[in-house]
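pasting input
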Amino acid sequence: MIDEQLASQLIRQLPIGACLLTPDYTIALWNDFFAERLQMPVEQTLGRNLLELFPDQARFLKRKLDSVFILKNTSFSYWEQRPHIFQFKSTRPVTGQEELMYQNMEIVPIFNDEGQISHLFLAITDATTTASYSIALRQAHSQLEDEHKAQAELIRKLEEAQNQLLQAEKMASIGQLAAGVAHEINNPIGFVSSNLETLQHYCQSLVQALDFAGQLLAKHPSAELASNYQQYKTQHNLDFLLQDMPELITESLEGTGRVMSIVKSLREFSHVDSTEWKETSLIDGMESTLRIINNELKYKATIHKDYQEQMPLVYCQSMQINQVFMNLLLNAAQAMEQPGDIYIRISTAGDFARISIRDTGTGIAPQHLTKVFEPFFTTKPVGAGTGLGLSLSYSIIQKHQGKLSVTSPAGQGAEFVIQLPLLATPKE
Amino acid sequence: MSGQFLSEEQRDALQEVLNISMGQAADVLARLIQTQVQLSIPSVKQSSRQDFIGCLKEPVQQHLAQQSFLGELSGEMISLMTDNGNEAIAKLMHYDTPLPEQDRQELLLELTNILAGACLHGLISQLNFKIQLAAPVLFNPASLCSEQLNWQQALLMEVQFQIPETSFHARILICLKQDSLYPLMHHLDMLLQ
């Protein structure tokens, strides 16, 4: 049989933390595991109150001990939920990364002969190895998940890029088509317009001639002739006809004028000569762009223009610059939840031409400000924006040795500013 | 394996034992949290694997924990709880609310240990078994499928706990496989004699 000395030596050397408590939480046994790892020798702990010795954990320990006492059942604590009940140094000071030992705890009730709980046995086991494997596994898992997400995101971007390419190709064909149509329309509308102008002159002469005829007849002695003429005029509503005819011609001329300006804009905009560097009027470019996207803007925003007089010409790829104007204007319009205003200002600032497009839309969130020029960045719903408009604009302006910047004071919409050098040299 | 595990008399005896032990469980619980606890009448039923899994994978968002016991009688207990009334019970158990995730898990395990422990304690003390409880662990039934289980029929004893005035509700299942039934039947027969 085991004698008392052997038993106590056995307990002292148990490879788990063993602590025996009386029902009033007084420590009755404190083995080497506890003593050495906590640097609290037996003589310092025996007879002391456990809760007072460990005030940080007192509430938790009391709850556990009390439940064992009342329920007369073993209670457990697991490293995952409560890793460090006692501040044991890690069991892997050399190879491990963890500072403190991960612990599982069991509190077992010890009964006396009358079936009452005489002691509570508190056992601590080292779960550091399991814990560190488990934690590493979890980290690896979440890393894999992150990578998976990143891949999915990449695939999404690729899909969008492909869509964008398809879209670009489509736009290019539409541009060519538009250029072709514009060219075809240009000839007939040219002669229609010039014919109408001639017709306007003819019409004036005709009206004058009829007036003259009327006056002559009024002076004629034969009243019958005058009354016949008057009757004919009334019958055929000649007065109205003579009044309306010039108006019809004027309106038609206005119409042809508009058709011609649209055709001109289309020709300007189609990429036929888009890479050509030439001295360009930014104001003309802006006006031509505004005409093209008039339909997109007119119900959403009122355009306020402020053009500096005698604005110098800028040496640039005008079509590309127009593309930038269009992107910025469309973005401004899309930022409007309700009809608002777009302020366009073209002026000189030092050696630069400065074009500012400011809207009263929803603005750009501070955390997005640094990202708006990144390719594929968009806050528009999926499918509504490619995230390429601004990055394309940025690269166009950079190619012109200019600057494109954005500011968005909270609640005041956004302002995009383009600066183009006035003394630029062509860059291949 | 089909057919009934328990004879009618054995089943009645077990039901009686459960009734008494659950009453005791409710009593100690009430003492622990200083609040009245209500229990359903315990049910005893024989369950197929499909029924067993179906009962764990109920559509409600619930948390499960599992606790094994071994010794003269061995089996598992499963607790099923929702988040309802979580805060209320946490306060009764002297936890700080709102509960951080780790504390929520600890509370779930603690409640499992307490409720399942109390139920089992009554049962085994009346039937005179000696058993040991293992630590409760969190349990996710999502990956459970009936083909993986190496049994056909099991005995499920179920009791439901409620705390009036809170929405707290917990189900405790004590599950015994067929090979654990013989000692149970033996002890029940002794009780019946």
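fyi Chain A has a mean pLDDT of 85.
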